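pinned: reference chain
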Amino acid sequence: MNLWERMTGSDLNREWKAFEARAQALPADHRAAWGQITVHLFPYGDFTGRNLMPILDSALGLLEETAADGASVHDVLGEDIAGFCAALAGGKGARTYRDRWREQLNRNVARKLGRLGG
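pinned: its structure tokens
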């Protein structure tokens, strides 16, 4: 991957299209689970979402293997897909980009108020 692809995100678009093509080959219940997984994993992503690509690839691979074995989605992922995604992304209570941005904003505001007040 070259610098231009990284800057424009075209590598991510290409990878995402490949994920979607793979997901279209899945049975309907597995495609629905893929949709839920993507929705529940996105909050754990960084600004670009690059950190999620290996996780999404692994999750899609798991769905593909599950479909090939004939197992149901619920047998593998359980009933709590949001919990599965939280565990996959780093466990419950894992810091998301929102948490990091909130902490940074609080530090910046505290620093500015300290300068104005002192």
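why pinned: The first helix runs from residue 3 to 8. The CA atoms of residues 14 and 20 lie 10 Å apart.
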